[in-house]
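Example: 4Fe-4S ferredoxin.
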Amino acid sequence: MPVESNTPSDVPSGRDLRIATRSRADNWTKPPRRIETSECITCDSCLRGCPEQFGAIFDRGLDVVIIPELCSGCPVCVLECPVDCIYVDADWTPTDDAMWSHIALTGEGTA
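Written out as structure tokens, the predicted fold is:
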């Protein structure tokens, strides 16, 4: 007999929930990371290395950006970056509506 869940299947969870609410997970204690665009060579190593459960790094035109609401602060992208242009962003600001629209249009916010 199947086990019933109290959570409807259409309720987002994990990354999808963070995208839907445009907020970071409450249990994340590390600040997000940021990419210094003036130092970045746009190699996309960080984008490819970002763990799928976070999926926090996106191409935005000629720049690669980290969405702070999706970034747990883990060091994976830092370790992947060949030019060391990724830093802790303790003073991060919320992501603008245009970028959230980009995420929605590209379908990168859905599992």
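The beta strands are 33-35, 57-60, 63-66, 86-88.
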